[in-house]
Amino acid sequence: MAVAAVSLTGCQLSSSELPAISDSGTKNSGHVVWHDLITPNLAQSQAFYASVFGWQFQAVNDSYTLASLDGKLIAGMAELDNKQNASHWLSLISSKDIAGVSEKTIKAGGKVLVSSTEIKGRGTIAVLEDPQGAVFSLINTVNGDPETHQTDNSWVWQEVWSDNPEQSKAFYQSLGNYSAQSKPLNNGNYSYLALNGKPAIGFVKKPDAEIGNTWVNYIKVADIDATLLKVTSAGGIVLMAPSDKVRSGSVAIIRDPAGAGIVIQEQM
Question: Which residues form the VOC domain (predicted)?
Answer without folding.
Answer: 28-141, 154-267
